[in-house]
Amino acid sequence: MDLRGEVAARPPQIVGIVLVRNEDLFVEQAIRNVAGFCDRIHAVDHVSTDRTWDVLLQLGTEFEHVDVRRTHHADDSHALIEPYAGTDTWVFGVDGDELYDPARLAAFREELRAGAYAGVFKVASNVVNCTAFDPKQRAATGYPSPPSRSITKLYNFAAIDSWAGDGSERLHGGTIAFRDGYDERSVDNIGEQLTWHESPLRCLHLCFVRRSSRDPEAPAARPILMESAMHDRTWRGALKRRLRPRRGLDVSEWKREKYMRGDLVTVDASPFFS
Question: In terms of pTM, does the model score above 0.90?
Answer without folding.
Answer: no
